[in-house]
Amino acid sequence: MAMVEITAEDFDVEIALAYATPENITGKPIYTRAACYLHETAAEHLRDAVRLAKPLGLRLKIFDAYRPAEAQWKLWDASSGNAEFVADPRKGSPHTRGVALDLTLIDASGRALDMGTGFDDMTPLSHHASTEIPLEAQRNRFILMGMMTAAGWDFYRNEWWHYQLFNARDYPLIDQAKLPKPLM
């Protein structure tokens, strides 16, 4: 198992790790170090998604990727154990396996496309198939879903921003001690 650091330069993505800032559901930074990692297989699928976005004049903006188990517990506690939006840390998450991404689309100027809700909005409006959001946002979600699934990612129906490898649960949980430097 090899973890790959995802950098803006090497992957042509924007990285804005929400859990390294207070702009998340806990209201405070969870990560003490803002670094983005994926399992090597997931990193290759990310490259495919970046390649598909480019001809459309779009880029990917990453909110989260690999997430240590300690961070999963903090999110679980902050969400009051809302399993509709946060995986139970006792079972692990695709994020704690390094095979999941939380992301959105941005245009050439760096402006995020309208997705109808913000990242980590834990309401039914965040569901992929919500028709209670503007048509443009619905269209943008389907563009993101089309690119990501064509690049080998599966989507989670409750979160427009979450993608994971199709066989995510087949990958082992990864302890952050395996990283060059821990995130927390």
Summarize the structure.
This protein has 184 residues and is of the alpha+beta class. Helix content is 24%, strand content 18%.
Describe this structure in words.
It is a single chain. The chain has about 180 residues and is α+β, with helices and mostly antiparallel strands. It has one domain (about 5-180): Muramoyl-pentapeptide Carboxypeptidase, domain 2 (2-Layer Sandwich), CATH 3.30.1380. The protein is about 25% helix and about 20% strand. It contains four helices and seven strands. The chain has helices at about 10, 40-55, 70-80, 135-150, and strands at about 5, 15, 35-40, 60-65, 100-105, 155, 160-165. The strands form two sheets. It has a five-stranded mixed beta sheet, covered by helices on one side. Strands 1-3 form a two-stranded antiparallel ribbon. Strand 6 and strand 7 form a beta hairpin. The longest helix has 16 residues, at about 135-150.
